[in-house]
Design brief:
This protein is of the alpha+beta class. It has one domain (35-200). The protein has helices at residues 45-53, 64-73, 106-120, 125-146, 156-170, 179-190, 209-215; strands at 42-43, 77-78, 81-82, 95-98, 102-105, 193-194.
Length: 231
């Protein structure tokens, strides 16, 4: 299991020890523009993988070691800013609604998928997931002072969790599937991604980021990894 992803095993998040909060070294903790879901950027997993596939480097079509290297790079920062995930900040499909994990912010998902993938090189799968999640939690605490409009936004920690699961446990660099294809399978089969208008709070979410910032704080905060607005 520690070698190359899930290696054909059955994915079952409940079998993992997810909470390992012994990592007290918040180096390069960066909230990757963590607003809350807005209608303008709400979309589907099918739309998001097209964004990846049609990017300048066609990163969604990467396979094998190339896909692994890109996944590892997703948590890279320079001057405390993400170097990779910012590309997705203003893309349709940044926010995806899933029946099992609620709203998923793909920028958070990818950032912490990259972190967990890096931690996996030196830790067990469970510890890698826990360490990445711990980093995300520390970032939300910092945001109370640095970015109160996004601190503990209701989808942030659940997005960090499922991203860490994907990066450390689900992604398989030995798979013949592309990175986009592996993402799509994870979202469709395990998270049960669906149309954003199926979300229970769809008619209440802000239309644009400007409304989020104007509120000064998220419309709903969540200090746990338990997703909100699930069915």
């Amino acid at each position: 299991m520690n070698g190359g992803g899930n290696s054909g095993g059955v994915f079952n998040p409940s079998n993992l020890m997810l909470f390992s909060y012994t990592h007290n070294n918040p180096v390069n903790l960066v909230d990757p523009d963590g607003n809350e879901p807005v209608i303008k950027y709400a979309g589907t997993i099918e739309g998001f993988v097209k964004v990846m596939d049609n990017s300048r480097r066609a990163v969604g079509k990467f396979t094998g070691n190339k896909a692994d290297a890109y996944l590892l790079s997703l948590s890279n920062t320079k001057n405390m800013l993400p170097t990779q995930t910012g590309y997705y900040n203003l893309k349709k499909g940044r926010y995806i609604y899933t029946k099992n994990a609620g709203w998923v912010d793909m920028v958070h998902f990818l950032f912490y998928a990259g972190k967990a993938r890096k931690y996996k090189n030196d830790h067990s799968i469970a510890d890698a997931i826990g360490l990445a999640m711990s980093d995300g939690y520390m970032q939300e605490k910092m945001d109370i002072y640095l970015a109160p409009h996004s601190a503990f936004s209701y989808e942030d920690l659940p997005s960090d969790k499922v991203g860490a699961l994907f990066g450390a446990y689900v992604f398989d660099k030995n798979s013949k599937k592309t990175l986009s294809e592996q993402l799509e399978v994870f979202f469709k089969d395990y998270l049960k991604a669906t149309s954003p208008n199926k979300a229970p709070n769809y008619n209440q979410i802000p239309k644009t980021d400007e409304k989020v910032h104007a509120n000064g704080r998220p419309t709903k905060q969540n200090g746990s990894y338990k997703p909100c607005y699930v069915k």
